[in-house]
């Protein structure tokens, strides 16, 4: 039989790497040709508990056999439990949850709530930010002109230079509905904001009636070594948005807001078809239960310190970031380091900065995996 090479039916929207995983287990990805890769990328921060975690596969299967889908028009015990669980994991005061399907959608809704609550028209964001690809989320994303693709912007945005408290003070004014930022920037290369900037942001937004939004789509749900980065900094925003690993790999996102903003959300103000579906909610509850029962957050903090202290080897000159959102500065192009790591069967990610390798490993990482990473980097 002659095999005719098949033309892919997928749009060429992604530049893919040459690893095709067919199976995953814990920290490992396996290919059909018998290779196994150590997964320091975690499917772009989504595989929060690693690949095919047995608890998650069981919960998903049980829920699928019990109630596969119902909309937000009917109350669901599992949706209520997931919301309670998420709110109890978040900083106190953010007890009102709206479930969605993705990070961009969580941010769109956070902005919608902010515009409605303040009646103002502008948003402030921070240079280097990534908030998503839908129209509003892209408008507050730095450097989106390359791929924005819509004829116009839905509102005006002011970008504040990274960590610049003077400009924060100058730019925020009585036209600003919301200030949004990632406390630890992901796409920019795992850049953690200073405690001083975050304190100033909380103080100034409170004084000027501006909604403070932490985009914790990438850095939330335990990735910093704390439930949310908000707890790491000891600062409670008015809204947290989160997604990626929240359901361990099943599409899900959420917006959590304080009681004052919650009062402005009346029936019909927000909506979604799939958000808050039973499969996602069962997984959200199981992910948070697992993080707590396995006591994974101290593990994240300890192994993160190990990487920070021991990974400055081979082409790595410095390590930045928090928890398991780490940026390794490279003295050769990061793309070359990533290729070399792949040849040593380790997957990691890039960043907007061409000299940063980004690590986003699952929270179940162990010492032996860190040893393997350091040995591989030393060898490059
Ligand atoms: N916000 C941050 C901080 C992100 O890193 C991302 C995705 O990488 C998004 C928002 C957008 O999330 P999604 O791709 O789920 O829409």
Explain this structure to me?
35% of the residues lie in helices and 19% in strands. The protein contains 13 helices and 16 strands. The strands form four sheets. Strands 4-12-11-10-7-5-6 form a seven-stranded mixed β-sheet, sandwiched between helices. The protein has a four-stranded mixed β-sheet with strand order 1-2-3-15. The radius of gyration is 21 Å and the shape is globular. The mean pLDDT is 97. It binds pyridoxal-5'-phosphate. Residues 102-104, 107, 130-132, 182, 186-187, 215, 217-218, 243 line the site of pyridoxal-5'-phosphate (PLP).
| Element string (H = helix, E = strand) | EEEHHHEHEHEHEEEHEHEEHHHEEHEEH
Number of helices: 13
Our measurement of the CA-to-CA distance between the termini, rounded to an integer number of angstroms, reads 43 Å
Strand content: 15-25%
Mean of all residue-level pLDDT scores: 97
Outline the fold blueprint.
Layout: E1 21-25, E2 28-31, E3 36-39, H1 42-45, H2 54-66, H3 77-89, E4 96-100, H4 103-118, E5 122-126, H5 135-139, E6 156-160, H6 165-171, E7 176-181, E8 184-185, E9 191-192, H7 195-208, E10 211-215, H8 229-233, E11 239-242, E12 253-257, H9 259-262, H10 278-293, H11 296-310, E13 316-322, E14 325-330, H12 334-343, E15 346-347, E16 356-359, H13 367-378
Parallel strand pairs: 3-15, 5-6, 5-7, 7-10, 10-11
Antiparallel strand pairs: 1-2, 2-3, 4-12, 8-9, 11-12, 13-14, 14-16
Helix pairs in contact: 2-10, 3-10
The structure holds pyridoxal-5'-phosphate (PLP).
């Amino acid at each position: 039989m002659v095999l005719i090479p098949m033309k892919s039916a997928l749009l060429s929207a992604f530049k893919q790497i040459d690893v095709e995983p067919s199976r995953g287990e814990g920290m490992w990805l396996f290919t059909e040709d018998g290779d196994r890769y150590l997964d320091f990328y975690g499917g772009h921060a989504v595989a929060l508990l690693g690949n095919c975690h047995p608890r998650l596969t069981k919960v998903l299967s049980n829920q699928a056999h019990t109630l596969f889908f119902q909309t937000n028009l009917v109350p669901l015990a599992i949706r209520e439990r997931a919301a309670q669980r998420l709110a109890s994991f978040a900083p106190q005061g953010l007890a009102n949850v709206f479930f969605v399907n993705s990070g961009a959608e969580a941010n769109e809704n956070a902005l919608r709530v902010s515009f409605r609550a303040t009646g103002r028209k502008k948003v402030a964001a921070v240079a280097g930010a990534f908030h998503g690809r839908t129209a509003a989320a892209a408008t507050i994303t730095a450097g989106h002109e390359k791929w924005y693709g819509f004829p116009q912007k839905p509102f005006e945005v002011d970008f504040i230079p990274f960590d610049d408290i003077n400009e924060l003070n100058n730019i925020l004014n009585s036209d600003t509905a919301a200030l949004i930022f990632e406390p630890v920037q992901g796409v920019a290369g795992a850049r953690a904001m200073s405690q001083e900037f975050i304190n100033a942001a909380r103080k100034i937004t409170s004084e000027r009636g501006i909604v403070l939004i932490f985009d914790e789509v990438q850095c939330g749900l335990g990735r910093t070594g704390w439930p949310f980065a908000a707890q790491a900094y000891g600062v409670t925003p008015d809204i947290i948005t989160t997604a990626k690993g929240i359901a361990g790999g099943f599409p899900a996102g959420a917006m959590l807001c304080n009681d004052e903003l919650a009062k402005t959300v009346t029936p019909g103000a927000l909506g979604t078809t799939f958000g808050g579906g039973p499969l996602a909610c069962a997984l959200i509850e199981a992910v948070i239960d697992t993080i707590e029962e396995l006591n994974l957050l101290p593990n994240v903090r300890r192994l993160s310190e190990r990487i920070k202290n021991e990974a400055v080897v081979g082409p790595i000159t410095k390590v930045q970031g928090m928890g398991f959102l780490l940026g390794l500065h490279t003295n050769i192009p990061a793309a070359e380091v990533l290729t070399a790591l792949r040849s040593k069967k380790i997957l990691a990610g890039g960043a907007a900065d061409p000299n940063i390798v980004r690590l986003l490993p699952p929270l179940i990482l162990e010492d032996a995996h860190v040893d393997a990473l350091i040995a591989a980097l030393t060898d490059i």
